[in-house]
Amino acid sequence: MESYSILLADEQPAASPQQNPIALFGPILIIGIFIYFMAIRPMKKQEKERKTLLEAVKKNDRVLTSGGIIGFVASIKDDEIVLKVDENSNVRLRMTRSSIVRVLSEKDAAKETTEEKS
After folding, report:
1. pTM surpassing 0.70?
2. How far is 108 from 87, CA to CA, in rounded Å?
């Protein structure tokens, strides 16, 4: 039995070869770059466009809200906007500026009037 234990003690573990750091971190780096260009960068661009849109809203603009309400901007105070929804009964709604999804152009207004007439 003694000879067996001596044989085990004399064996040394084999040294593992050094791996190239690029081989280890390369796939992680490629995935990170892919995620940046496919997700993060477009979101930042979209956020910038939205911020520009909200800053450009002015009185008498026709807007669409996130709740689907279409109206004209009656007044603007800091982060609050008052929308005039119905001209006949003078219905006005107070909303936050961030609830505006887009500003409707003259083309959109002309399209709606032709649809109503049909």
Report:
1. no
2. 19
